[in-house]
Write a structure and sequence with these properties.
mainly alpha
Length: about 70
């Protein structure tokens, strides 16, 4: 949220990129939980694979965010 405020107040492009990264990570956690709860009704134990896949996406998003760190 601080990065989002920096973007709106200072027009800082780095703040926008950082905001999108962190909100994207949070969104993927929520999406994984929601999809997992719906999929479990159909494929039971195998739904954990979907949740694991979503966590894998978040894992790669976290490390791709290192390119946005200020120097």
């Amino acid at each position: 949220t601080q990065s989002l405020c920096d973007y709106f107040l200072k027009h800082d492009k780095y703040g926008l990129k950082k905001t999108l990264l962190y909100y994207g990570i949070i969104f993927n956690f929520i999406l994984g939980a929601v999809l997992g709860s719906f999929v479990i009704k159909f494929v039971y134990e195998k739904s954990i694979l979907l949740c694991s896949f979503m966590l894998l996406i978040v894992f790669f998003m976290m490390f791709s965010g290192n390119q946005y760190q200020e120097e």
